[in-house]
Amino acid sequence: MAHVGYARVSTDGQSLEAQVAELKAAGAVTVHQEKVSGAVTDRAALTRAVASVQAGDVLLVTRLDRLARSTQDLLNILDEVAKRGAGFRSLRDTWADTTTAHGRLMVTILAGWPSSSGN
């Protein structure tokens, strides 16, 4: 089982260093990094991160907002991770951990909750 990290900042003026250090401290062997707005759904490093996870692996992020900006985007990403037989965990949003029964329940509840963005 490998931990694969994904780190993202929105602007060139922001640094990825803190996220990368936190992900590595949590056991990430590889950290895919990019500087792009979270509103952009087609992100090259995220695509590589998801494609790299295998059955039993865990995709790690420091916070959910580093992964997705909308509920639908988050659920699509988590669905792709699950299809690969991998789990997902947010280090700071501890409820978002699909490697546990409680975390899977919380994600299921989130899936049924109306998005506040009006989508």
UniProtKB/TrEMBL annotation:
Superkingdom of origin: Bacteria
Active-site residues, record numbering mapped to chain: 10
GO molecular function: DNA binding; DNA strand exchange activity
One Pfam family from the record: Resolvase
Domain (Resolvase/invertase-type recombinase catalytic): residue spans on this chain: 2-119
GO biological processes: DNA integration
Keyword entries, A-Z: DNA integration, DNA recombination, DNA-binding
Protein name: Recombinase family protein
